[in-house]
């Protein structure tokens, strides 16, 4: 699919999409819960749909309510009638594969785990190293998908490396919390993206599990009694998707975004820091966030930002930096290698086609802004966040920007182009 975004001043109000980080976690919790779970404001992105399909394949029953809510009956023991090998697909979701693999390992059954797109290229050596320590047999494709596991997983005191992704730890926390018969401890070194672990811990607590941590270096999981009560969970708005909307307001007019929790533990809430540093005008209340270009026609200022714990912010930050009057410095480039694309190189190439120079120096990205953004034609590289960054950059460009493979946004924010076009003043 090809989409053309015309330059234009924006003004209007939008509601943030549902957080797929929150949605996927509550799917895992609902699968492992003995009672019914009602999910309010469920997400509908490709990653969300993949998570729902995974828990369905693992024995959950999902019913769509007339008001849009989802009613889920879990399968906490992951028991199945058939002896045939189970096959589950996590689509192209990195969180899905890393979270649901330990959860699936609870089953006393052989399960084949597959994925699509860039997911088949992402390293999964973590499971080759960790699963045997937990009594789980595993076969992988030289550290990549597909992987075949045979449980049941047996929680034990282990030490893991958290430098590649916190998502592996999230999966272990869900599996351990459900199956622990005595206190167990996961020791973690070099943990990245700790706000996402806070999100995981919040979901676990909501479902009655007891997990404590010591400086994000040791996680203590306590056994809990079976809980078959009915639970309700509201999926919060997505700061990752909304970050593009907020940046759009800063570079192209004014926007009001509703549905975001200003007290959220989502890592990408940090976009507010970058917007404030860039001199964008912000008004933040509990119900809405308003962002607009600097007052008095002042230019946006270059900023410095550490994105080590929120690497998904790189694309919207680059779109923002392109319009700042000078060189902005973003730290954390090392976190970008194993995304839907190698985002550092993809951003450098994509924005280079639009006349914006980006330098990569070790763990730093230097974006030379202030010289304008050219119209042109770019490719999403099958990466939803690259497509959205290109669309936001188009809003104040010298001409329209054509985005090839534009449907990549369906992974996280299917309504994005519709939302953006709805606030462009005609």
Give the helices and strands, then pairings.
Layout lengths: L1 E4 L4 E6 L4 H13 L3 E5 L5 H12 L3 E4 L5 E4 L12 E4 L4 H11 L5 E5 L10 H6 L6 E5 L2 E7 L7 E4 L5 H13 L4 E6 L4 H13 L3 E5 L3 E5 L8 E4 L4 H14 E6 L12 H7 L3 E4 L3 E5 L11 E3 L7 H8 L5 E5 L11 H10 L4 E5 L2 E5 L7 E4 L4 H11 L6 E4 L11 H8 L3
Parallel strand pairs: 2-15, 3-14, 6-7, 10-11, 18-19, 22-23
Antiparallel strand pairs: 1-23, 3-5, 4-5, 7-9, 8-9, 11-13, 12-13, 15-17, 16-17, 19-21, 20-21
Short description:
This protein is an alpha/beta fold and 426 residues long. The chain folds into two domains: 2-17 and 237-423, Alpha-beta prism (UDP-n-acetylglucosamine1-carboxyvinyl-transferase, Chain); 20-222, UDP-n-acetylglucosamine1-carboxyvinyl-transferase, Chain, CATH 3.65.10.
DSSP summary, beta strand count? 23
Mean pLDDT: 95
Radius of gyration: 22 Å
Overall shape: it is: globular
The span between the termini is: 24 Å
> What is the count of structural domains?
2
Side-by-side strand order of the widest sheet: 2-15-17-16
Q: Please, how many helices? A: 12
Which second-level CATH architecture of the largest domain applies? Alpha-beta prism
Low-confidence stretches: none
In CATH's first tier, which class of the largest domain applies? Alpha Beta
CATH fold-level name of the largest domain: UDP-n-acetylglucosamine1-carboxyvinyl-transferase, Chain
Strand percent estimate: 25-35%
Q: What summary fits the major beta sheet?
A: 4 strands, mixed
Considering the protein shown, what is the CATH homologous superfamily of the largest domain? Answer: Enolpyruvate transferase domain
Helix/strand class: alpha/beta
Please give the share of residues in helix: 25-40%
């Amino acid at each position: 699919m090809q989409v053309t975004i015309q330059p234009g001043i924006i003004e209007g109000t939008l509601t943030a999409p549902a957080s797929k980080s929150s949605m996927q976690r509550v799917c895992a919790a609902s699968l492992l819960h003995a009672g019914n779970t009602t999910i309010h404001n469920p997400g509908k992105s490709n990653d969300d749909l993949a998570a729902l399909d995974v828990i369905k394949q693992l024995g959950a029953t999902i019913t769509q309510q007339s008001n849009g809510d989802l009613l889920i009956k879990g399968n906490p023991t992951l028991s199945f009638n058939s002896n045939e090998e189970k096959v589950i697909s996590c689509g192209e979701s990195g969180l899905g594969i890393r979270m649901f693999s330990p959860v699936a390992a609870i089953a006393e059954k052989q399960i084949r785990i597959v994925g699509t797109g860039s997911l088949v290229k992402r390293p999964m050596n973590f499971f080759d190293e960790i699963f045997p320590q937990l009594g789980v047999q595993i076969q992988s494709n030289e550290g990549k998908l597909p992987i075949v596991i045979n449980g049941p997983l047996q929680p034990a005191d282990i030490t893991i490396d958290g430098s590649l992704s916190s998502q592996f730890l999230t999966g272990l926390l869900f599996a351990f919390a459900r199956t622990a018969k005595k206190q167990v401890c996961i020791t973690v070194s070099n943990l990245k993206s700790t706000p996402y672990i806070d999100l995981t811990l919040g979901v676990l607590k909501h479902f009655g599990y007891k997990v404590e941590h010591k400086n994000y270096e040791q996680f203590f999981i306590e056994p809990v009694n079976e809980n078959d009560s009915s639970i309700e969970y509201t999926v919060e708005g997505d700061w990752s998707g909304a970050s593009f909307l907020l940046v759009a307001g800063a570079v192209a007019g004014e926007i009001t975004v509703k549905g975001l929790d200003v007290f959220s533990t989502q890592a990408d809430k940090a976009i507010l820091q970058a917007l404030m540093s860039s001199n964008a005008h912000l008004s933040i209340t509990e119900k809405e966030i308003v962002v607009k270009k600097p007052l008095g026609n002042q230019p946006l200022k270059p900023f410095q930002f550490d994105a080590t714990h929120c690497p998904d912010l790189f694309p919207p930050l680059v779109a923002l930096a392109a319009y700042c009057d000078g060189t902005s410095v973003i730290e954390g480039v090392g976190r970008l290698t194993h995304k839907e694309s190698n985002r550092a190189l993809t951003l450098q190439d994509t924005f280079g086609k639009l006349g914006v120079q980006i330098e990569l120096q070790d763990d730093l990205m230097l974006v030379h802004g202030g010289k304008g953004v050219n119209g042109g034609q770019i490719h999403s590289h099958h990466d939803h966040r690259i497509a959205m960054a290109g669309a936001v950059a188009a809003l104040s460009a010298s001409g329209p920007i054509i985005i090839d493979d534009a449907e990549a946004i369906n992974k996280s924010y299917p309504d994005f182009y519709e939302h953006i076009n709805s606030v462009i003043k005609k």
